[in-house]
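Customer escalation, tier 2.

The customer says the design service returned an amino acid string that "doesn't look like it belongs to this structure." They asked us to rerun it and document both sides in this ticket. The original structure tokens are below, unchanged.
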């Protein structure tokens, strides 16, 4: 690698050096910014600003390991690579020195009109720079660096351009409308002045395409920061009267002085964490066996970037283990940031507070922390951070301050925070051909990526995850995968993706002991550690299958089972949950339990609480807070409580239950749900006798299965949500263990692997005897999802032939990108429409929709107030909706209200509410049951 003596690119204006300093070289009439400024901002100064911001980002934000990797690929020192990258960033808008762009206002005198149609300025930059950069002596060969960087800079608006290689030849440029004569002279003069001031080095080798994608993200970010109207206005008074080299150099000095503050104000600083032992990081409790194993062995195992897989039961401290491991891995790889990816928005919200507490103890200086999911902008993140820090007992005068800066709350920016907590979707968007996917990859490139609940991914999402891991491995980004139930073949697949292997067997397949952890680096055998599970924490889970009854009306009848099972709870107290497969079934079960509750003596009546996804945002949050507070580790526990829910409680929510009833589901999900039983041993002494775990008595779970145990009669709603083959395997696995019970953790991995056999032929699987067709159907569905993913994702790094392949197709907006299979979720807004056709929120006498201001906009608080009444539903439920199901003007023209589906619930003179109708479906928002599809079974 070169050192500080790297060759430097310089301009070639000709003449005496002193005379050149004061010669007018660039034409300040050629503008680069104008909107909302009151006057034109010369293009050269926007380029200079962008270079200065890129330099500040390189020094203060870009991860040290990433800087070293880019410098090594270019054959330069880190400092020289930084000067080169800022030079590239400066050139991003060179395409504005073309007739088409300048004609948007007026063409300066002396510049000819174009003889051909001029391409857009980003595409023009790509076309011109391919040959212009080559003249600086950039490496050529099969993959010329000049063409690669031209492709990078042409993508500064978030899309890589597909250009015929013949159009990149210098001889072709006059025919592409870029302008000749003074146009060409100004482009050359501008690039030479920039080279003279910025002193970029001459790379000795080319970049990989994966690193080029990351550099593109850096350039996009620098352009965004330098393009802020507020910032440009601070620089207007410094604009000189003539474009001499001396004047531009002086202007650059001012930009370079201002840029670090601009970057810091946006929150774009590197995360700094205090080093220390696990006990120092988490002083509130003694590390368990898993955490102690990682603390003892992981630091010595980590010699560079790698993939850590942790498998352990729920409630076994995986979150703390992940944060400790992320710091260790990030320090070794020079990627100090952290992104924690979770399966749902609810789990992300809960994790946000836990990480805020961790950062308050271990962070150094200002720490930018972002919450990232589709509805995160509704969350009071400042209050969430303050509450979390206050609950942790950390004084506000500490030098550490976690914050979510205002700039980062803009669209697509939150992932750039030093610490991000959000859904897995935010990371998967980096491997979909969405605009600005390069910016997302750049944001991830400075972090350790923690992915929780990996076992919950279906075939489509797992295919996207495989591609994401291949990119993270290629970019030397550390990864931590967490799972309570990880099948062996999935662990091998994910490890192979990170290593860049063509197939899982190219290196020794990792074996993740349960409980235990395995660390995988790209070119070395995996390191695995099994954890000796303490005998006092080993539990036996008794699972009893109960055939579900079918009522006279043909509907499933859970109540006949539940009323028998909950008799002891009513008599002696306790807390239990019922997990139903669909929202409609949860609502029906809730109604049935309320009817049963009315027959119980008043002193023994349990509270019955319903929680599912079809509540308005404000109500779902309130219910979630209620149950997590009462059923968490430290809350005041209710005397008697039955929680009726769907799958929303099976992941990451801190719930401790005495007893659980669940619909039949894949065995790994049943084991995950069982992790909510007796989650906190500190609660054991206070459990009612019928559910006590004192003295080693086992936990107990009832699983509702097919009517009369006939697996050919599995309810259709269940097999619609889960593959029939998985349900059949689960039922038969439970039958094998019904007498002896399931020992956790000893039996978990075997059950998970047998329930998820990978490529094991169905005709050889004894669990599917008589049901081989179900496995064939499952395999076909898996292939459909995998093909769907293949058609929608970007190529893996080793298959990427040009950066344009990252921007194929129509490039849907991020809000419509398919990160989940068939997840066409939309948001509905239930409103109450009175006889005067006025729309109200929250009830017939609720607030009316807020009135837009004179510009037709609503304040952020008003938007939040409306959106907190919305409910997510599957798109097929509201298919066939017309214009009458959109908000009327002027609200429909306001983001994000224009995307909402309006449910008009008419209210007559007597106050009677009628359901909203969409096509053949009718919906009613019930105060206790949430959104009900009337007539849904």
């Amino acid at each position: 690698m070169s050192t500080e003596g790297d060759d430097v690119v310089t301009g070639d204006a000709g003449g005496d050096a002193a005379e050149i300093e004061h010669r007018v070289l660039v034409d300040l009439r050629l503008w680069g910014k104008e909107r909302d400024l009151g006057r034109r901002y010369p293009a050269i100064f926007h380029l200079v600003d962008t270079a200065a911001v890129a330099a500040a980002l390189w020094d203060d934000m870009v991860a040290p390991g990433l800087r070293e990797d880019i410098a090594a690929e270019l054959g330069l020192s880190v400092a020289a690579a930084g000067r080169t990258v800022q030079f590239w960033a400066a050139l991003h808008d060179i395409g504005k020195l073309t007739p088409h762009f300048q004609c948007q206002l007026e063409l300066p005198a002396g510049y000819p009109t174009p003889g051909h149609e001029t391409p857009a300025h980003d595409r023009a930059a790509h076309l011109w720079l391919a040959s212009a950069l080559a003249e600086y002596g950039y490496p050529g060969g099969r993959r010329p660096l000049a063409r690669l960087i031209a492709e990078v800079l042409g993508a500064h608006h978030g899309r890589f351009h597909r250009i015929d290689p013949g159009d990149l030849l210098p001889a072709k440029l006059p025919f592409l409308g870029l302008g000749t004569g003074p146009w060409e002279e100004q482009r050359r003069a501008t690039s030479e002045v920039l080279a003279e001031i910025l002193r970029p080095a001459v790379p000795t080798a080319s970049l990989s395409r994966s690193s080029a994608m990351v550099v593109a993200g850096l350039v996009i970010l620098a352009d965004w920061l330098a393009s802020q109207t507020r910032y440009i206005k601070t620089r207007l008074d410094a604009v000189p009267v003539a474009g001499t080299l001396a004047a531009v150099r002086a202007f650059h000095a001012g930009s370079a002085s201002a840029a670090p503050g601009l970057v810091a104000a946006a929150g774009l600083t590197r995360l700094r964490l205090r080093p220390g032992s696990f006990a120092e990081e988490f002083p509130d409790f003694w590390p368990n066996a898993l955490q102690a194993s990682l603390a003892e062995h992981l630091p010595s195992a980590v010699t560079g970037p790698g993939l850590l897989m942790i498998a352990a039961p729920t409630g076994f401290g995986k979150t703390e283990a992940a944060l400790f491991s992320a710091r260790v891995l990030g320090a070794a790889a020079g990627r100090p940031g952290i992104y924690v990816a979770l399966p749902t928005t609810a789990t992300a919200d809960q994790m946000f507070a836990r990480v805020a507490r961790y950062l308050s103890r271990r962070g150094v200086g200002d720490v930018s922390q972002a919450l990232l999911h589709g509805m995160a902008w509704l969350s009071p993140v400042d209050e969430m951070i303050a509450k979390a820090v206050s609950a942790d007992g950390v004084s506000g005068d500490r030098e550490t301050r976690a914050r979510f800066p205002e700039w980062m709350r803009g669209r697509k920016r939150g992932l750039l925070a030093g610490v991000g907590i959000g859904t897995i979707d935010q990371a998967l968007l980096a491997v979909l051909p969405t605009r600005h996917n390069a910016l997302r990859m750049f944001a991830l490139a400075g972090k350790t990526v923690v992915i929780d609940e990996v076992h919950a991914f279906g075939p489509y999402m797992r295919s996207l995850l495989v591609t994401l891991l291949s990119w993270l491995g290629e970019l030397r980004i550390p990864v931590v995968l967490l799972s309570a139930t990880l099948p062996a073949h999935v662990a091998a697949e994910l490890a192979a993706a990170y290593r860049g292997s063509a197939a899982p067997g190219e290196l020794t397949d990792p074996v993740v002991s349960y409980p235990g952890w395995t660390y995988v680096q790209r070119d070395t055998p995996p390191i695995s550690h099994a954890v000796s599970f303490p005998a006092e924490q080993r539990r036996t889970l008794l699972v009893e299958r109960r055939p579900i009854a079918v009522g006279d009306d043909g509907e499933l009848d859970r109540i006949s089972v539940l009323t028998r099972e909950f008799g002891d709870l009513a008599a002696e107290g306790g807390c239990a949950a019922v997990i139903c497969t669909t929202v409609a079934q949860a609502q029906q079960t809730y109604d049935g339990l309320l009817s049963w509750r009315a027959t119980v003596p008043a002193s023994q009546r349990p509270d019955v609480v319903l929680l599912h996804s079809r509540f308005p945002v404000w109500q779902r949050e309130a219910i979630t807070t209620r149950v997590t507070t009462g059923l968490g580790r430290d809350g005041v526990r209710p005397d008697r409580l039955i929680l009726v829910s769907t799958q929303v409680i099976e992941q990451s929510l801190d719930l401790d239950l005495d007893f659980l009833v669940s619909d039949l589901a894949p065995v790994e999900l049943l084991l995950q749900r069982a992790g909510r039983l007796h989650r906190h041993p500190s609660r054991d002494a206070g459990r009612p006798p019928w559910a006590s775990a004192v003295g080693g008595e086992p936990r107990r779970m009832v699983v509702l299965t097919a009517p009369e145990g006939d697996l050919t009669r599995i309810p259709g709603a269940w097999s619609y949500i889960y593959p029939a083959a998985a349900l059949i395997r689960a039922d038969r696995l439970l039958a094998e263990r019904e007498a002896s019970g399931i020992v956790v953790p000893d039996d978990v991995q075997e059950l998970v692997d047998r329930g998820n056999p990978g490529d094991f032929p169905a005709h050889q699987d004894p669990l599917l005897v008589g049901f081989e067709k179900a496995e064939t159907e499952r395999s076909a569905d898996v292939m459909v999802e995998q093909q769907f993913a293949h058609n929608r994702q970007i190529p893996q790094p080793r298959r990427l032939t040009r950066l344009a392949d990252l921007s194929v197709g129509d490039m849907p907006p991020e809000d419509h990108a398919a990160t989940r299979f068939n997840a066409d979720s939309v948001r509905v807004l239930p409103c109450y429409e009175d006889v005067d056709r006025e729309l109200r929120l929250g009830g017939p006498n609720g607030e009316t929709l807020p009135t837009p201001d004179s510009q037709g906009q609503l304040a952020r608080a008003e938007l939040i107030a409306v959106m907190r009444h919305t409910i997510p539903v599957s798109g097929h439920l509201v298919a066939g909706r017309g214009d009458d199901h959109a908000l009327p003007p002027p609200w429909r023209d306001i983001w994000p209200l224009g995307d909402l589906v309006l449910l008009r619930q008419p209210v007559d003179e007597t106050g009677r509410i009628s359901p909203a109708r969409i096509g053949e479906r009718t919906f009613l928002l019930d105060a206790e049951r949430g959104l009900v599809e009337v007539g849904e079974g």
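Tier 2 assessment: The sequence is consistent with the input. The longest strand covers residues 539-547. The chain is about 35% helix and 15% strand. Sent an explanation to the customer and offered a walkthrough call.
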